[in-house]
Specification:
This protein is α+β, with helices and mostly antiparallel strands. 46% of the residues lie in helices and 11% in strands. The strands form 3 sheets. Strands 1-2-3 form a 3-stranded antiparallel sheet, with helices on one face. It holds the Pfam family Phage_integrase.
Length: 349
């Protein structure tokens, strides 16, 4: 049976009502309310949940703010994540939002919806907002399962996420591939032409092929070492990628054209990289080559779309293509596949 007693401050002034619930098999519960009616209501609900066996201790979630959980997440979870540097940026932005001052138990879907509106007003794109929400959602799941906040409801699951724009469908058309390769200037970099061909043949991401750096707090941080010669087996015609964007290693089969590219590349004993340059170097050279070739609206990443579509046009099945590209879901694979209607017409006979 709950006991409800008046609560007083040090001067003896009445400030509210304290509820104490002591029941066998449950930890003692104490909570103070402004009015007796609120105290009685909470006591009734709590005792009812205990009797029905559905009670959950809410003290941790009611006494811990989102900011405190974000701090803990930064210390315990992010260091073990491959995309930790990027996610730390999302986390730091959550720490600055008004919602961070709220207690975990009080955060509802409508509060998350307000944060979504804030991000939209800041000019953030739909995918960026979704990545922020993914971090917040995972934090709530960790808090619920590992931080003694089992009573929490994940508020991210109750809100509508921004709709992603239609994926790019840019492919190489007509003689664009020949024009692009012809525009590669070996005097500027010997790596661009082989990198383009290799990307088209393997569907590898730029970060899987090339050494990649980014700036964080005015410091350069290497985010990818790129493809290494030790991970290439010319006899088996494979390239092993121990670290990929989705966190899973994969081994990519190499076509005859890809093998020829590798055999023609210079191999310096003191440089373990297959492509002895960085993504930034290739990106700048790629932009210049497109300009010389008169090709508009083409990005290096579009070559991954091109490669994925060509795999299907060669007759490979979905699971075979996914094994090469590393897509975890068929939905994501579909976003990277843009088959040409004229090629499909030929298959119809």
């Amino acid at each position: 049976m709950a006991s409800i007693t008046p609560s007083y401050d040090r001067e003896g002034e009445h400030i509210g009502w304290q509820v104490a619930i002591r029941k066998k098999g449950f930890p003692a519960q104490y909570k103070t309310f402004r009015t007796r009616k609120e105290a009685e209501g909470w006591a009734t609900v709590t005792e009812s949940e205990m009797l029905r066996g559905i009670w959950r201790d809410r003290s941790a979630s009611e006494g811990t703010t989102l900011k405190e959980c974000l701090d803990r997440y930064a210390q315990e979870i992010i260091p073990s994540k491959k995309s930790g540097d990027r996610e730390m940026g999302y986390l730091q932005q959550w720490q600055k939002r008004p919602i961070a001052k709220r207690f975990m138990a009080s955060i509802e879907g409508q509060d998350v919806a307000v944060s979504i509106k804030e991000m939209e007003s800041e000019g953030k794109g739909a995918n960026t907002i979704r990545l922020h929400l993914a971090l917040l959602s995972h934090l709530f799941e960790v808090a619920r399962k590992e931080w003694r906040m089992s009573s929490l409801v994940n508020p991210v699951e109750t809100v509508r996420k921004p709709k992603l724009p239609q994926g790019r469908d840019r492919r190489l058309f007509g003689d664009e591939e020949n024009r692009l390769l012809a525009a590669c200037d070996n005097r500027q970099t010997i790596w661009l032409r082989p990198a383009i061909i290799f990307a088209i043949e393997t569907a590898m991401r730029s970060g899987e092929m090339l050494e990649t750096w980014r700036y964080s707090n005015k410091e350069q941080i290497k985010t990818s070492i790129g493809l290494q010669w030790t991970d290439v087996d010319l006899n088996k015609r494979t390239a092993h990628l121990p670290k990929t964007k989705n966190g899973e290693a994969r081994t990519v089969p190499l076509s005859s054209r890809a093998i020829q590219v590798l055999q023609d590349l210079p191999h310096h004993p003191n440089d373990p990289r297959v492509f002895g340059t960085t993504y930034e170097g290739i990106h700048q050279a790629f932009v210049r080559a497109c300009k010389r070739a008169g090709i508009e609206d083409l990005r290096f990443h579009d070559l991954r779309h091109e490669a994925t579509s060509r795999f299907f046009e060669k007759g490979l099945r979905e699971m075979q293509v996914a094994a090469i590209t590393g897509h975890k879901t068929l939905q994501m694979l579909k976003r990277y596949t843009h088959l040409k209607a004229e090629d499909l017409a030929k298959l119809l006979g």
